């Protein structure tokens, strides 16, 4: 029994290392192609970004089947509780609203209320079409693309880390790794085109705080689909922070600047408090 336990821990550790190394190698090579072709202005950058989102899923599925010899469903392919899908859907609105409130309290800029930025009806498109699009976007196509990441990060990696570490350490490690996975794109100006190098550090924090919520969803619901929906909703709605919090400095804005980070940190602390309350022996 002792030997089997040691073998399982060794396999788990190797499964984590292989996943991180292979996933980073493939995506960093894709980032290099983008960089060598002019960076984010490269005409195929968007296609590369979409492809990158599926790399964690493909690598983790291959390792699950051929190295860990486990079922693909063992990493959260369950329906989960409906209420966590609701939390996943509304999270970006709460994060943006709190970020904008902090932005105004800190006096970092002014509130911009311009419905034309959200519903540009000057193009002849009725408002209800935008509303339908906003409502559906987190589900399709965003959640489908986000699942490509979330099965790898919150499914495979988080579950394997949790076999070795506490919940808190697992969520922090997963978030930092996930943030660093984005590093080359951030250094090229993605999200922080004004401050690309400081942006790498800030985005790692951002991803870690966001990752706590995604991880909370996965743990509480036992479903990776809730994390995929949250990721999809985040990609659909988080940009509203840029619209409402008017500033010329990305480091002081929402969602990627200081008030945005503080908002996400507050929400992350709430999630950690709930996890500690729910799983005191594993936290």
Short description:
This protein is mainly alpha-helical.
Structure report:
This protein is mainly α and 283 residues long. It has one domain (73-278). Helices cover 73% and strands 1% of the residues. It has 12 helices and 2 strands; from the N terminus they run H-H-H-E-H-H-H-H-H-H-H-H-E-H. The protein has helices at 2-36, 45-66, 82-105, 115-118, 127-136, 138-162, 167-181, 183-187, 196-221, 224-237, 240-244, 258-278, and strands at residues 110-111, 245-246. It has a two-stranded antiparallel ribbon. Helix 1 (2-36) packs across helix 6.
Tags for this entry?
mainly alpha; 12 helices; 73% helix; single chain; two-stranded antiparallel ribbon; 283 residues; 2 strands; globular
Number of domains: 1
- Global morphology: globular
N- and C-termini, Cα separation: 26 Å
Rg over alpha carbons:
19 Å
Instruction: Average the pLDDT over all residues and give the rounded result.
Output: 93
The parts where pLDDT drops under 50 for at least 5 residues are none
Question: What is the succession of H and E elements?
Answer: HHHEHHHHHHHHEH
List strands and helices in order, with pairings.
Elements: H1 2-36, H2 45-66, H3 82-105, E1 110-111, H4 115-118, H5 127-136, H6 138-162, H7 167-181, H8 183-187, H9 196-221, H10 224-237, H11 240-244, E2 245-246, H12 258-278
Helix pairs in contact: 1-2, 1-6, 2-6, 3-9, 3-10, 3-12, 6-7, 6-10, 7-9, 9-10, 9-12
């Amino acid at each position: 029994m002792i030997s089997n336990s040691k073998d399982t821990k060794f396999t788990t550790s190797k499964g984590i290392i292989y996943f991180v190394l292979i996933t980073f190698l493939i995506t960093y090579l894709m980032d290099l192609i983008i960089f060598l072709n002019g960076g984010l202005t490269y005409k195929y950058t968007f296609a590369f970004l979409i492809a990158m989102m599926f790399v964690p899923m493909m690598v983790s599925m291959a390792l699950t089947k051929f190295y860990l010899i486990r079922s693909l469903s063992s990493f959260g392919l369950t329906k989960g509780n409906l209420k966590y899908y609701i939390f996943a859907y509304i999270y970006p609105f709460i994060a943006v609203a709190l970020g904008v409130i902090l932005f105004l309290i800190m006096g970092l800029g002014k509130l911009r209320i311009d419905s034309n930025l959200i519903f540009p009806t000057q193009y002849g498109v009725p408002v209800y079409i935008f509303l339908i699009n906003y409502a559906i976007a987190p589900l399709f196509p965003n959640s489908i693309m986000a699942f490509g990441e979330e099965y790898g990060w919150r499914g495979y990696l988080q579950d394997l880390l949790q076999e070795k570490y506490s919940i808190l350490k697992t969520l922090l490690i997963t978030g930092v790794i996930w943030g660093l996975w984005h590093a080359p794109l951030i250094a090229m100006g993605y999200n922080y085109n004004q401050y690309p190098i400081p942006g790498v550090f800030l985005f790692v924090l951002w991803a870690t705080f966001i990752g706590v919520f995604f991880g909370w969803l996965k743990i509480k619901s036992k479903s990776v689909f809730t994390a995929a929906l949250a990721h999809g909703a985040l990609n659909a709605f988080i940009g509203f922070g840029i619209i409402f919090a008017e500033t010329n400095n990305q480091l002081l804005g929402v969602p990627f600047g200081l008030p945005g980070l503080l908002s996400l940190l507050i929400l992350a602390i709430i999630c950690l408090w709930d996890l500690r309350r729910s799983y005191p022996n594993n936290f």
